[in-house]
Amino acid sequence: MAGRSREAMGHTEVRDVRYRKGGNRELRLALWEAWGSKCYWCTKPTVFSSIQIDHIIPKDVGEPELRSLKHTHGLPHDFDLNDPQNLGPACVECNGPDGKRNRTYHAASVTDRLDRAAEHRAKVIDRVQRLGRSGKVAAHLLEAVTADFSDSDLRQEFLEVAPAVVRLLAVMDPQLLVDHQSFREVEVAVCEETGDYQRVDVTLDARGRSAVSTLEEDCDTELADLLQAPVVQLTDELRNRVTAGFEAIESSDPITAGPPTLDYLRIDVDSVDYRGSADGIEFTFNGTFEGVFTASVVRVAPDGEGTDDLQGDAVVNGTFSVVAAWDPTTELADVSAGDCTDETWEEDLHVA
Ligand SMILES: [Zn+2]
C-alpha cells in the first residue's frame, strides 16, 4: 500500500543499494541494525561510529578464487561482491589486517556469515531506501545516531539530549523500549592457577533481562559464576573433538595430534529464559561458539620412512545450551548448571 501511494506521488526513485566508495552512511546504519548492533565477525557489541562495512568475501579477490569460493559457499553465479549479501558491519579490529590475517575464506564460519547476510538482505535494502527518503526529524536523529562518539564533546552533547528522546519514546511507544536488546560482557574464570578469563557476550531482550535480574536478585547468583563450569566443559570438549578430528583425517595419515592450542574462542549467549516449577526456577541459556585451534600433528611420511611433523589448524563452531536449576529447598543461594550440550557442531580441519 505504502509503496503504491509513493509511486502515485511520483517518488519512484529506488536507489541501487550497493557498497560504493564513500557515502555509505545509510548502508552502514542498516547493516549495523540488521546484525543487532554487533560486529558481524566477532559479534562484540559495537557503537555505530566504530563500525565499518566489511566485504565478507574480499572485494579484491581474483576471478579463479572467486569462482572457487562461490562453489564452496553455494553462491549464485552472478554473486555481486558489493551487494548487501556480501556485506557485514565489522569492528575496527576485525576489519583490520590483524583481524583478517588468519581468516580462511573457505571456512564454514564464512558460509554461516554469508547465509545470515542473505537473510538480512531485503531488510537492509528496504531500510536504506527508507532512510534515503527521511524527513527533517529523521535526518537530525540520523545525524545524532551516526555521530563520531570518540569525540568526547559530541559524546557529552549526545548524553545530555538522549534521555529526552528516550522519555519521549517511552510515552509515544513503550513497547519500543521494552523490545530493545541490551548487552552484558561477562568475564568467566576458566583457570584459577593462571588467572585466565574467557569473555562471554550475553545479549538480553526484555525476557532475558527479567531472567538475569531474577537470577541475581532472587537466587543471589552471579552470571559469571553460573557460566564457569559450562564454559570450562565446552572448552575441554572442543579440545577433545579437535584432537580426535585431526587423528581421523585419513588422507594425511596422521598418527597422533598433540594437545591443541586455543588461539581464539568466542562464546555468545543469545538468549536467556526462565520458568518457575514446583521445584524452583529453571534457567535456559542458548548461544553460539566459535573456536580456532592449532595443533602439532605427526604422521607417517608419504614414502613410509620416518614421520613428518605438521601443523593442524581447526575452526569449529556450533550452538550450545545450558540449563541451570535453582532449588530453594536445598540451598538458598545455589544455582547448579547442568551439562553444556552442544547441539550443532561444524568443524573445518586442515593439516599443512
Ligand atoms: Zn569484530
Tally the structural domains: 2
What small molecules are bound in this structure? Answer: zinc ion
End-to-end CA span: 58 Å
Q: What oligomeric state do these chains adopt?
A: single chain
How many beta-strand elements? 9
Write down the secondary-structure element order.
Answer: HHEHEHHHHHHEEHHEEEEE
| Major β-sheet annotation | 7 strands, mixed
Note the total helix count.
11
Q: Rough shape? A: flat
Rg is: 24 Å
Q: On the 0-100 scale, what is the average pLDDT? A: 86
| Overall helicity | 25-40%
User: Based on helices, strands and strand pairing, what is the structural class?
Assistant: alpha+beta
Q: How much of the sequence is in beta strands? A: 25-35%
Poorly predicted ranges = 1-14
What topology emerges from the helices and strands here?
Layout: H1 2-8, H2 25-34, E1 52-55, H3 63-73, E2 87-90, H4 92-95, H5 97-100, H6 108-132, H7 136-145, H8 152-172, H9 174-179, E3 182-191, E4 196-204, H10 206-218, H11 223-247, E5 254-257, E6 261-277, E7 280-300, E8 307-326, E9 335-351
Parallel strand pairs: 4-6
Antiparallel strand pairs: 1-2, 3-4, 5-7, 6-7, 7-8, 8-9
Helix pairs in contact: 2-6
Bound molecules: zinc ion.
Zinc ion is lined by residues 39, 41-42, 44, 90-91, 93-94.
